[in-house]
Amino acid sequence: MKLVVVSAGLSVPSSTRLLADRLAAAVDRKADADVDIQVVELRELAVEIAHHFTNGFPGRKLADALDAATRADGLVVVTPVFSASYSGLFKSFFDVLEKDALAGKPVLVAATGGSARHSLVLEHAMRPLFAYLRAVVVPTAVYAASEDWGAEGLPERIERAAGELAALMAGLSARLPAPRPGSEGFESDSFVSDGFEVVPFEQQLNALRP
User: Fold this and answer.
1) How far are the Cα atoms of 141, 158, 193 from residue 30, in angstroms, in the given order?
2) In this structure, what DSSP letter does residue 103 have?
């Protein structure tokens, strides 16, 4: 399974990157299959992301990162909190990603901040963003304030969230592709789009008739 970790930390070392690494390691421990982990550091792509907004084309490193996120079986996304929300760099990366790239893809959201008072950023900003992108956001999101490092609670939240992501990744990876209309074994007009079965309205109506 392919796991892509997107970290929007700006400093070196970075607490955002530290949280991202701990989440990735926990997913690796929880998964039944081998996990291939790739980390995308957005601070290294800041200039290419800005150029993409103005010229419409990604540079080589940004194109590789966008391709990795699109092809991943699951994502861990971590941002520092700025002005009570995700950072502009974090949002910009997902703004230049193809519109349907994350549809049906499991995503674990996480954030770091200087105060626990910003922890709701996970629910009022990050979860709606990835719901809009039609990703499958795991139930447990992880926020780490300065006082959480080394304290009780954070390791348990990391393990729980990682277990949920690993389970979703295994389930989606094991799903067999449904036969397409006209292919061998196809018995109805339904088909699978973005991981969801689409049944024509006429077929649903016929199923209701006595």
Assistant:
1) 16, 11, 29
2) T
